Structures are given as C-alpha cells and as structure tokens.
Amino acid sequence: MTKQNFINKKDKENISKLLNENGLLLKYFSKEISEDKELALIAVKNDGEAFKYVSKNLQLDKEFVKEACKSYPFPVEILHESLLKDEEIAFNAVRTDGRYLRYFLDEIKDNKKIVMEAVKNDGIALEFASEKLKNDPEIVLEAVKNEGYALAYCSDELKNDKEIVKIANKNNLWALEQASTELRDNKEFILDISKYQDIMLKYVSDRLKDDIEVIEATLKSRGDNLEYVPDKFKNNKEIIMLAVKSNGYSLEFAPDKFKNDRDIVLEAIKESGHALYYASDNLLKDKELIQIAVKNSGPFLTYSPTKIRDNKDVVTEVVKNECSQLKYASDRLKDDKDVVMTAVKNNGFAIQYASERLRNDIEIVREASNTYLYTFDYVGNKFKEQFPTIKDFLDYEKEITNDNPWSKGNENKANAWNDKVNSDKDNQWER
After folding, report:
1. Residue 40: which pLDDT band, with cuts at 50, 70 and 90?
2. C-alpha to C-alpha distance for 255 and 264, rounded to whole angstroms
3. Could you give the CA distance from residue 307 to residue 283 in angstroms, rounded to a whole number?
4. What is d(CA 196, CA 204) in angstroms, rounded to the nearest whole number?
5. What is the predicted pLDDT for the residue at 344?
6. Among candidates 38, 41, 74, 37, which has minimal Cα distance to 57?
7. What's the 3-state SS for the chain?
8. pLDDT of 69-94, one tens digit each?
9. Cis, peptide link before residue 405, omega less than 30° from 0
C-alpha cells in the first residue's frame, strides 16, 4: 500500500473521519495532508504516536505541539531540543504521563510547578527531578502520596522524615525498604505505624526483628511476616496462632509441629481454607477440618499441591461441592470410582474429567446421564461402540428393568426418552 494509491481524493471531511478512527493512517497520506494542522491534530488526538507522521513544520510548531502532547502515548523523545525546554509543552506532557519528565532538559526538571504536576500524575517521576527538588518536602510528599515506592528517589534527608515514610509505607508496603537505616531501627516509629498500617517485618532492622513487641505488632497486621520471624520465636504457639489468625497462609512458615497442631490448623483454615495445603499429612485425614477448609475457599484444587490433589478425602469433599474440580485431581483419583461417582452425582458433566476406564463404566455413565443427557458426549470410546447414541443406551436400560431412571413413571408412554430430553434441565457449563 503506497501513499499515492491509499487516498484517491482530498475530501477533507472523509479524511477527517478516517483519522478520527485511526490516527496512524496519517502515515499513508500525502505531504499536503500531513501539513494540514486541523487534520494532523485529529490524527494525533486519536493516537499520539501519529505525531511521528505529521510534517516537520508542524513538529516544530509550538502551538501545535502544545496541544498534541496532551495525547497518550506521545513520542516526547522525538521533539526538537528547542521544544524540550518549553514550560507549556512540558507541563501538558507530564500532565498526560508524569514519566515524560525524563525527556525534558534540566531546567524543566528543576521547575517546581512542572515537577509537581509530574509526580501528581505518577510518583515515580520523582526519579527524573533535579536533586534540589528530590529534597523538596512538598514535591516528595506528593510523589509518595501517588506511589509509595517513590521514596526510593528522594534525598537521604527525606528518607528519614517520619511523616513522609509513613505515607509512603501506607501506599506501598515495599517502600519501607527505602527508608533510612535510622527509621528502620526506630522501635517507637515502627510500633506506631504498625497500629494503623500493615508493615513488612522484612524491612525493619535485624535488632527489631529480634524484639518480641515488634514481632507481635507486625504479625497482627500481616501474618505472613512469620516468614521473617527468627526461629527461636517460632517455637512459641502464641506467636504462630497470632500469625495464622491474621493470615492463614502463614502456616507455611510455621514449624512442622504446628502444622500438625489441630488448634493452629483450625484457625488457619478459618481465615483461609487454602491454608490446609500446609497441614500435616496426619491432619489431612481429619474430615471436619477438610469440610471447613473447602467451605472457606474458592476453587480448592486449581492451584493445590500434589499431596492435596491426591488425597481422597479432600478431593471427595471438594467435588461434592464443585464437581468441575475433578479436573485438577490426581490421575489416581480420576480413576477412583468412589470419587468420580461423587462428582457425577453432583453434575454429570464431571464425567469428562474421569479416567478412560471410568468413562466406560456403565454405573458411572448411568449416573452422569441421569443428571444431564448431554453428558453422553463424554463417555468412553468402548462404551460408544456398544451404544452409539444415548437413545441406544436408554433403550437398553429400559429393556433391562422397568425400575430405572428413564422408564420409571413412563412405562405407558410411547417415547420415554423424548420425555426425558424435553424435561432435561440446563447445566452450569452450558449456561
């Protein structure tokens, strides 16, 4: 496609419509069109990258660029150097994307008004500010309000400012890593912010990691801080209990003896059913715990470890409630008739996840078909060799006994199978 044959008329109205739908089409228009300020601006407003295809004259036109750079994305990096020191252009650009500040000249990066606008849009834009403004409390405060991790780019002096660090930590838990060594070792400060904010024990000083008050305070806000608690404290049941009540997943970081402690595991699965993943093999036999865990979780097997997917008690309880989870059971349990029967009793479509052997099992097929006729699509090949269609199977069943799911109550009807089809209900997969 060439510029010459893409447009065969200079109908401004039609060109305007095209550019309003896809500004990048400006690339294929004639020089005359790329020099038309009105059409070029339409293209750039649709897609800022279209600025690459406007005429060189327009790329140097301050008034045009001032409007064009309000678009996103905008290729600031191709602006002429004379425009990279223009305050109006810079202000409009960073208002669109604060990180565009990186492309402007030093005098712009030292302009408080422009840098303030940049960090309000994206706190990380502080990285590109002048050293003077990185030490400006007003600028830094706005930056960490927008993105806590902007603390990484402020001056060392402000990394030691309690109010700035508090706000940074509130907006990004990883920001504490960037605070001054002094603040991360300040017990009063850490205890204070832990009263109303989550805090990462990982980033406090080693001295405070060894302080029981700090440990308890941080575990109350985030149980997964247990990962960074020194081993000598992990033998304390109260510490482990505090952690799992806050975050059941923290059971992962508990010593093995507590993974086998029913009280601990019970509190963990109350907070998050998936915490059962970390329980001892002994407690994975506890049906009451399994029921509570499954009840307090979403799809239980989807991301579970192998030992859970291969635990018959667990999988049976799961498919009793959500039969499609049979898909994530181990191959061994997909070939376990008890497990599969439980699943297809819930919903016959679970048969599609059963082993080939059980998809050819007449009792499994009967139970699945009793739930939804269309599950017959998933029965095994050997079964279909004997019964090519569901009608063949139902007719066979009808001949064997008058007391079966298909003929019961329909003995005097001409076509019991059609009655079943017409009364069949919707299923959760087809909806």
Report:
1. very high
2. 11
3. 12
4. 17
5. 95
6. 37
7. CCHHHHCCCCCHHHHHHHHHHCHHHHHHCCHHHHCCHHHHHHHHHHCHHHHHHCCHHHHCCHHHHHHHCCCCCCCHHHCCHHHCCCHHHHHHHHHHCHHHHHHCCHHHHCCHHHHHHHHHHCHHHHHHCCHHHHCCHHHHHHHHHHCHHHHHHCCCCHHHCHHHHHHHHHHCHHHHHHCCHHHHCCHHHHHHHHCCCCCCHHHCCHHHHCCHHHHHHHHHHCHHHHHHCCHHHCCCHHHHHHHHHHCHHHHHHCCHHHHCCHHHHHHHHHHCHHHHHHCCCCHHHCHHHHHHHHHCCCCCCCCCCHHHHCCHHHHHHHHHHCHHHHHHCCHHHHCCHHHHHHHHHHCHHHHHHCCCCHHHCHHHHHHHHHHCHHHHHHCCHHHHHHCCCHHHHHHHHHHHCCCCCCCCCCCCCCCHHHHHHHHCCCCCCCC
8. 999 999 999 999 999 999 999 999 99
9. no
At 299, the pLDDT band (50, 70, 90 cuts) reads: confident
Q: What is the pLDDT of residue 426?
A: 44
Report residue 139 as tokens: 């600028």
What type of residue sits at position 54? V
Residues in the chain: 431
According to the model, what pLDDT value does residue 18 have?
A: 94
